[in-house]
Amino acid sequence: MRFPLSKSLQRNSLHGMSTQTFRIGILGASGYTGADLVRILSTHPNIEISLLVAGRSAGRPLGDVFPHLGHLGLPDLIGLDEVEWPALDLDLVFCALPHATTQEVVKGLLHATGHSLLDEMLIERREDLVSAVRRDIKIVDLSADFRLEDPDSYETWYGRAHQAPEFQSAAVYGLTEFNRDAVRGAALVACPGCYPTAALLALLPIVEAQAIDASDIIIDAKSGVTGGGRSLKESMLFCEVAEAMHPYGIGHHRHMPEMEQELAKRAGQEVGLSFTPHLVPMNRGELETIYVRLAKGQSADDLRDILADRYAKEPFVRVLDPGVAPATRHVRGSNLCVLNVFEDRIPGRAIIVAAIDNLVKGSSGQAVQNMNLMLGLPETTGLMQAPLFP
Ligand SMILES: NC(=O)C1=CN([C@@H]2O[C@H](COP(=O)(O)OP(=O)(O)OC[C@H]3O[C@@H](n4cnc5c(N)ncnc54)[C@H](OP(=O)(O)O)[C@@H]3O)[C@@H](O)[C@H]2O)C=CC1
Ligand SMILES: CC(=O)N[C@@H](CCC(=O)OP(=O)(O)O)C(=O)O
């Protein structure tokens, strides 16, 4: 059976698997999330990696920067200004660039390809480019640039005015389990931050059921050092991180408005949370211990039932057996989020625990999950690897 290629996928009638290949690019391929995108996509059956962009590492082979990826035969890293967008004819681009860098890059990319999003924004596009591209390029952004819907909130929390505010409203917030349909049709997906990913998966169903007081949530979070990226920072040096642990961003971390924005959409009441992240001496992984006040008549078991029901059919979110504490070793290298709920000694309170791998479900894995939907592929393609243990 044949389908038009641009609309549907050619299907292998024997195995029910798509045989179509999509050309993708990775901007920020010499960073931690870029490396994990390459790792995950290198075994994805429908993806050809056609472009790898870097900053300081531009001009070097990928295997020079990451010897563990050197055998894949991928293109060398190049600079942004060397990319010939129309000629590359990409289906999708991942932006794994530092936040604040991405907004102008995305704007430039939409102009350089004559993207039809420009029509929606009533911005003139060059007709010669329109005819040169096969179809609109799709963008999956891993940075924070398009997560906040309100330009003023962006300026308040990121300390500078947004450079592409006209595209903020076009972006779909890519928490896949809650925005599947919108992600499928999106031109630009803003993947959630790693801390919001774990917090929202733990809290959204419970807040939606009005089973807790959403104005009184306390999130105590711990992250591995890769959460801070690969560029050199004193606070990330081995001697500063090993055998130590410290909180940061106390009372003013930029992930708070992101969590509140998404919780508020479902809470039906005022949302208030305290959030304190800590840096812990491990490479990857993230654990959140969340303290909540129960709504009248609710128990910790009720919260657990709400999560278990909500995620029963989700491939990447698991509620562990009663009493089993989620740990980063349960998810390492996988696209899983593991959750559980515990009774507090103080009546009327409960404790929710969530664990993810910040580089997989917290960034690159979730980005590929969104890519699969945007390209019309089964959501789990390339993402079913079991966690690495111990
Ligand atoms: N690390 C994590 O756990 C998570 C990260 N994120 C977000 O994902 C994005 C990437 O994060 P991460 O991989 O950790 O960051 P890294 O610092 O490890 O990597 C950043 C990448 O961007 C490249 N880059 C920087 N400036 C430019 C430029 N001007 N032109 C071209 N390339 C440039 C760097 O190239 P080079 O090194 O060669 O200069 C590098 O490849 C960030 O926005 C981050 O906030 C989101 C969720 C989790
Ligand atoms: C350990 C560490 O530094 N973590 C980062 C969060 C990384 C992330 O997921 O979020 P963004 O995409 O919003 O950067 C931080 O606290 O800023």
From TrEMBL:
Active-site residues annotated for this sequence: C194
Subcellular location per the Swiss-Prot or TrEMBL entry: Cytoplasm
Catalytic activity: N-acetyl-L-glutamate 5-semialdehyde + phosphate + NADP(+) = N-acetyl-L-glutamyl 5-phosphate + NADPH + H(+)
CDD domains assigned to the protein according to its UniProt record, in alphabetical order: AGPR_1_C (cd23934), AGPR_1_N (cd17895)
Statement: the UniProt record of this protein carries the keyword Oxidoreductase: yes
SUPFAM superfamilies: Glyceraldehyde-3-phosphate dehydrogenase-like, C-terminal domain, NAD(P)-binding Rossmann-fold domains
Domain Semialdehyde dehydrogenase NAD-binding: 23-186
UniProt-listed Gene3D superfamilies: Dihydrodipicolinate Reductase, domain 2, NAD(P)-binding Rossmann-like Domain
SMART domains per record: Semialdhyde_dh
Identification of the protein by name: N-acetyl-gamma-glutamyl-phosphate reductase
UniProt xrefs under Pfam families: Semialdhyde_dh, Semialdhyde_dhC_1
Family that this chain belongs to: Belongs to the NAGSA dehydrogenase family. Type 1 subfamily.
Organism of derivation: Iodidimonas gelatinilytica
PROSITE patterns named among the record's database cross-references: ARGC (PS01224)
Protein keywords: Amino-acid biosynthesis, Arginine biosynthesis, Cytoplasm, NADP, Oxidoreductase
Entry's Gene Ontology cellular component terms: cytoplasm
Physiological role: Catalyzes the NADPH-dependent reduction of N-acetyl-5-glutamyl phosphate to yield N-acetyl-L-glutamate 5-semialdehyde.
Enzyme Commission code: 1.2.1.38
Catalytic class of the enzyme: oxidoreductase
UniProt keyword annotation of Repeat present: no
One of the GO BP terms on file: L-arginine biosynthetic process
Metabolic or biological pathway, per its Swiss-Prot or TrEMBL entry: Amino-acid biosynthesis; L-arginine biosynthesis; N(2)-acetyl-L-ornithine from L-glutamate: step 3/4
Molecular function per GO: N-acetyl-gamma-glutamyl-phosphate reductase activity; NAD binding; NADP+ binding
Highest taxon of source: Bacteria
